[in-house]
Specification:
Length: about 220
Amino acid sequence: MTEKVGVLGKKPPRRTGVERVVNAPLPTVYGKFQAVGYLDHDRGDEQVALVYGDPGTDRVLTRLHSECLTGDAFGSQHCECGDQLAAALRAVVAEGAGVVVYLRGHEGRGIGLLAKLRAMALQAEGLDTVEANLALGLPVDARDYAVAAGMLQDLGVRSVRLMSNNPRKREALVRHGVQVAEQVPLLIPPCESNITYLRTKRERLDHHLPHLDAVAHLS
């Protein structure tokens, strides 16, 4: 099959950046959102921002949520991702306006689903989440937030109150042109199944998780 070419036999330039494709109402158990769908031309991923109310441009309550099938869909207690997503959606509804950017391609801090499951198997044998990724020859965190910044900019958002415990998300947004007016903690009570994982995130990945000090009794 012959590849299409442009004028004078030249290939058309490859599109880059993020493109808004669709805007659809999405009623949820938390409230009625607008689901704004995007195509990331750089990575090929389909992305979505859930917009509630009229967020405006400045100090918009915002969550960048990395895709986590096991936590978001299956209710895994290995991490706190599913609870964080639910808490973020509730928070923007309570605020009256806000944005939750759901970032596909971020599974397992960017290593993919199967690699994440392999890392979880190693964690069951005693490695922590950082050691497990490294043992598989994978980066500790391969996520990129350029597409999230592009989506927020398309939505007219200039500055955010970022619901996150991860300083790297703040740094990434600022680097890509979205100001972070405030970092809002999103602290989920730990359980026996995820306390080791959360402590590793605090001690080795610099996540701000002060509430862990109150649960020293968990193994």
